Amino acid sequence: EPEVTQTPSHQVTQMGQEVILRCVPISNHLYFYWYRQILGQKVEFLVSFYNNEISEKSEIFDDQFSVERPDGSNFTLKIRSTKLEDSAMYFCASKTGPDTDTQYFGPGTRLTVL
Amino acid sequence: QKEVEQNSGPLSVPEGAIASLNCTYSDRGSQSFFWYRQYSGKSPELIMSIYSNGDKEDGRFTAQLNKASQYVSLLIRDSQPSDSATYLCAVRRRSGGSYIPTFGRGTSLIVHP
Question: Given this model, what pLDDT does residue B2 score?
């Protein structure tokens, strides 16, 4: 069964460094999402992406964050200058099209900022 | 003001019983409503979506929506130990010019044999 994959599973970085989290959505999916979940807290929506542009973003998704679909398979989240409070699990998700709400989540990347 | 509120639990029920999970939301203009299941250390998985007032049933799961009371619930019939997980309520609420998904903190459900 096709699934969303994310790499790496765990990323450790120093405060102020740039990180890129990578996702490979399911191949025929057109809508892509990033969420984060700080340990013990709620899942938070960051951004949605369709047709090579951001369609929705939350207040969390400020200028420190960017997303890109550099080729036909990868979908990346870049954090330019990481802060301690960026430490969280980051989930990528994808769905086929506008007629469904079923998003398929990847296993997540745990980001630890030291 | 918390946008989506859930009792954190844990809610403990015996195997075979009905588990009732509740959620309230603050934005009266919220549209779609969702229940996700999240096992410890895993990613969320969509169980049910509901868009209009009333009940929606899917197998052992029933979602109930009351927009006037700003209330969403999930009933799990014939609860199994494998249902033990955290259940996340999510709504699409207005933020600026669009609607974004907003999650509650989740209710931990424990189904004991």
Answer: 63
